[in-house]
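Repro case for the chain-ordering regression, as requested:
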Amino acid sequence: MHLLELKNISKTFPGVKALKGVSFTLNSGEVHALCGENGAGKSTLMNILAGNLQPDVGGEIVLEGQIQAIQDFNQARNLGISIVYQERSLSDNLSIAENIYANCQPQNRWGFLDYAQLYADSKGVLTRVGLGELAPQTLVEDLSAAQKQLVEIGKALAQNPKILILDEPTASITERETQHLFGLIKDLKKTGVGIIYISHRLAEIFAIADRITVLKDGAYQATLPAQEADSPKLIKLMVGRDLGELVKNQKSTSNEVALEVKGLSGLKFQNIHFKLQRGEILALAGLVGAGRSEVARAIFGMDRYESGEIWVNGQQKRFSHPADAVAAGLAYVPEERKSQGIFPDHSVAENILAAQFAGANWGGGEGEAHRQKLAQQQFDDLHIVAPSLRQVVRLLSGGNQQKTVLGRWLSKKPQVLIVDEPTHGVDVGAKFEIYQLLQKLAAQGTAILLISSELPEVLALADRIVVLCAGQISGELNAAEATEEGILRLAAGMN
Amino acid sequence: MKIQFSLFFLLLLFGLACEGPPRDSASNTPRRKGEAASEMLKNIENEEYVMVTTAAALPFYVRHDQVAFKKWGEARGVKVSIVGPPDWDIPGQVAAIEQVISTRPTGLLINGTDPGLATVINKAVDAGIPTVVYDSDIPNCRRHCFLGSDWYQMGYKQGEAIVKLAKGRKGKVAALGILGMSNEEAGFQGLQDALKKYPGIEFVGKYECKNTIEESARVTSDLISTYPDLLAVSGFTSETGPGIALAVKERNKAGQVLVTNVDAEPTLLRLMKEGVIQYLVEQKREVFIWYGSQFLWDMAHNANAMPAKYLRHGVHSAPYEVNTGLVEIFPEDVDELLE
Amino acid sequence: MKQLLQDRVATLGILILLIGIGASLAFPQQFPTFDNLQQIVLNVSIETIVAIGMMILMIAGTFDLSVGSVLALSGSLAAWMLVQGYPMPIAVVVALLSALAVGWFNGFFIARIGINALIQTLATMGIVRGLVLLVAGSGIQDLPYSFIYIGQSKMLKVQSPIWWMLALLLVFHLLLKRSIFFRRYYYIGGNERAADLSGIRVGNMKLYGFVLSALLAGVAGILLTSRLGAAISSMGKGTELRVITAVILGGASLSGGQGRILGAFLGSLFMGLIANIMVLARVSGAWQDIILGLILVAAIGFDVVLRNRAGR
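-- result from build under test --
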């Protein structure tokens, strides 16, 4: 008997069929990975399991041999289903303990909160997820992104679930923490918990999954045992086409220095110096929290820096606002796409055109017709998949949102393009398009500063790699000599 | 060039289409000509009298003005309506009057809340509607009649009462009310003038009460702390009295700090019975509302038979100004009034 | 049809038309007259001018509670200077400069120092109201003819505040549709941080927004004082909430990024229409507040339901 069996699950939204008769099984003590591009239906399927959405008539959820209709989140929890969402569900202003036991805090016999019990229980949960050194009273806002993710997992574990759903659990945590998480998953397997694991990172899936199911456009594709699967096979199932060789490195570097940073120091980084040449892709690698994004923000005029110099095309600059940086030919694609990149309720066209409004321009510009043409051109060039330019960006997939943000800057023809985690939360198909785009831009002479935590991405794209550790440069590697281990050693501060 | 010329022409055309407001709208001389008064006689089909006030939901207005107005309507057998913004909002009252004018009622009874009503009152008069102002008179307007109390006297009487009740004691006196309202300011002035004659009694200032009991209590409490020799506090709205009394009671100063106030709401009378309030001076609101409405009716019906030749020259049958007088209440009257 | 129903300007326009027809049938003698219709527009004209500024701020995702006080300050200051004997143009210019200064004061503390807009403009509202009491005292009357002319003259039988409103509506409608400068407010309201990273100087733009809003409130103050023929210290009390209500009715969202100038006008007009009908129907006192509140909930609720349906 399966622990969980989903039979013929469909879900129709007005105008869209998000799931088309998907079936899925999960055994106890198994890790079952769910793969698919963004929009393939993974989140919808999990939301049905968590009680947030109701399937269309005809589908069945069988839990330990019994047919269940899961009406809401609480019922799912009582049935032993816990879900760790990609988007965080923690309240920053409350303590770790109160977050872990939100809505089910231990009570004493008077019906009041039993804080002693709460903190003791929380401490146990924290130890399980590898955060034993943290006090349960710590406020969540004081945690790093990675720690928050682990607390989120702890919150799910505190329910003692029979089924644990992990949606992109490693998106914001470091390598070391990922290893700890995998250890935790293996322990859970031994106790008979069934785990559904959703991730874009194929390497992780091969490392941890027992079986892999692929969805595409809401339809079931295949279920493979992990031993039989490899990357090309999975990608083909997910994308529905052969992508062939990943990316080819083309040599386009010239000798003109587009951007030079000398001895830049700020709150979270010290004495940063590097040169970026026209046509070159320079990667800033390092662990999450090493200060890479902070360096980029300081260069772009978003944050203040204490000392150091920034030179653009041979001229020293001091940007007090991104508008100055844009005027000097810089462009920046931020890491946090949702909160800093897109204008969620605006149309694709308006998002693309945002940078046309930069700086000190007061007048009518080159006119609405010209702007519409500009937006249309980026829309076509970047193959943004949307019904029209008028579509609201919030409704696009992550990859298309990212292309929209890229299009915004390409329409300005920047000389220096800073991209921070450009493929974060982007599905495989769009990922390759973004890689190709960056390489094309470099070939045309754009200087690109790439910040990325995905080492294969760094290795495939970069001409040179500068590695940061705790706010300082710990080494520089040429593309030819760099390996994943080499970068990781520098990033971890081991020499 | 062509565009500029046609633009110029268009502006010229607009210029010619402009007309200024009547020159006298802000002048001081009441105008008494035109056919307005004789036109009034025509509006007695669909007879309706409209009271326009601000703060139409204020309990004080509801209990006195509006009850009296409705009673008068019943007694006369005519339709009466009450219109106006629920909160204190003078531009809102102006807008309401303007909208009522366009519905051409038989008569308009306007609460004289602010001098800013002058322009719109003139508009009503020019439209031939019998227009009576009550409570406070509006300077520079051509209303047909005003009825109300003399607010300077309301203050002066309180001052005299304080001197009388002090029985030779000396000390400081303060006033609480809504700063910036013309009738209240006249009251403050009357109070000051009455106290001027007595060298031992010093007026220390007028304070904003925000027309709430809480604020009145707070200010009074502060005054008691500031002036150990505080002799009396005078209140100028229906809300100040209970607030002042509350603070005086809580500081155990009842009888020691004299309290005087305008109006005679039941709450105030009870506080007087308790011995916290020593003197009240009341307007005769019901009286001015009743006669104000009656004057409107008389004008519309020409009830007091003004000769037609007078009416033709804009003379109307209402008196120019009526002072309905004041009611003074001392503790010995209170039992009878509370029955 | 579905798109039409989602556009607030269209739905509100249709609603106003329907209510207008209903009122004409209910009060055939009183409602559909030139006098009454002009009166409705005249009564909303001054607050509509304030609503233009508020709409721009709400598009940028912020708001200004001090507009009512600024309106009173500008009107009172102009009246005070006129009574002191200064010529009309100088009094008007000084009054507008005072409004501008208040706007800059708001904008500086909100955009540069980082005080929350609610707190800053609430404080300013109190400060400026106090200044108004100092300037206007118990009111200023006997204003010269040259000043009265601004708000009481008529062109083509229509009183001047209506023309002022129409001119400002047209200008700002075009500016918000066409100019680079004003389009930025949509981006700021859509996502402030993304706007900053796109090279839009969010701080400066907000500062200008508060200055503009105060300046428009100043213009409204001059018009109102001139129209009343007197400065009243209680002018503009409650204006801020009525204007915000009108702007939200007209399609602005509290989170910013949405709204049109036409919506500000229709929102004000809708409120003026309801007020007019209540006067015609002789609805008094407390009931006005209750009815207006219920209409607001119904209008916004209807819209939210419609949007949720379309969003899925």
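Ordering looks correct now. The longest strand of chain A covers residues 16-26.
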